[in-house]
Amino acid sequence: MYGSNEDVAASGSATAAEKAERQRIYRTYLDRKLGVGDVHIYILTPNGEPLGGMSVGEATVNDTNLLNMLNGVVKKLGSAPGEPVVSPGPQSVAPDSPADSLVLHLSARGATRGTNYRMFPAENWIVLDKQEWTGLLPAGEAKMSETWTLGKDLASKLLIKFYPQTVEITAGVERGRIDRQNLKLTVTSIRDGVVRARFDGTLRMKHGSVAQNEDFFVDAVVTGFLEFDSGTRTIQRLRLVTRKATYRDEEFLAALRSVPRSAR
Q: Which of 69-73, 111-115, 239-243 has the highest mean pLDDT?
């Protein structure tokens, strides 16, 4: 299992008992000089006593350190092979939302792979309520080649997470400041009551990762499409991706897609 340091902080969402247990484990390893860290692997008995541990840096420096340590614990305990106690599942899941919401999944990945948190794409979820997502649609009946520009607040909500993996140490604080954005839609086809419109847009955003005063910027060109039913004015699919994007001169890719309720 894994836990978030933000959850067990003084203002975190974990219960008082969970925070106390996290602190007890930390103090036990510290007192016994077994190695500790805010990003650390702790191996415990069912009653919470130390069995082993390893820093994430040591665990990820090669393909064998962590495996050897785990095999050593298995040998020490004489554990027999068996099914996982907890079934594997996705770490990022769609948040609960009203049935008429538009739920969007965003993934982003930078070109640099040198640090362990850069080994996997970053993920975020964006939820638009009905009043918000109707702003994606034209005011009246859609016509071929018709173009409209999204409002500032809606465009910002779609684009504010377009940056690669960074170290975020303050929960709930938005570190993006959009300096310039433009996101428009143009109808490219109308067939059997389904309208398809193409996204075209640009983004200039300041984004600090650890320190708020960092002058690092995102510059991106985005494209994609929106499909909606012209009769019911309901959105069927949304895709928005970077055509060209940089953060601190590093190239990155980002993709935003709608997720139907049946797939959440």
A: 239-243
Number of domains, the chain: 2
Distance CA 142, CA 216 (A): 39
- Is residue 200 located within the same domain as residue 235? yes
Q: Which two tokens stand for residue 202?
A: 């640009």
Q: Which residue has the tokens 């541990």?
A: 53
Q: Give the lowest-confidence range in 38-47, 154-163, 196-205.
A: 38-47
In a domain, 95, yes or no: no
Q: What are phi and psi of 11, to 5 degrees?
A: -100, 10
> Which domain-ending residue is among 28, 59, 89?
89
Residue 27, CA distances (Å) to 16, 30, 40, 172 in order = 16, 5, 13, 27
Whole-prediction pTM value?
0.81
Q: Which helix (H) or strand (E) holds 60?
A: helix 56-60
The domain in which residue 141 lies consists of: 102-263
- The verdict on 59 and 134 lying in the same domain is no
Amino acid identity of 216? F
Cβ 123 vs Cβ 105: under 8 Å = yes
For residue range 191-202, list pLDDT tens digits in order. Answer: 999 999 999 999
Sort 209 into a burial class: Cβ within 10 Å, 0-12 / 13-18 / 19+. Answer: middle
Domain co-membership, 83 together with 111: no
Same structural domain for residues 111 and 231? yes
Distance in angstroms (rounded) separating the CA atoms of residues 259 and 264: 7
Q: With contact defined as beta carbons under 8 Å apart, do 221 and 243 qualify?
A: yes
Instruction: Name the DSSP class of 99.
Output: T
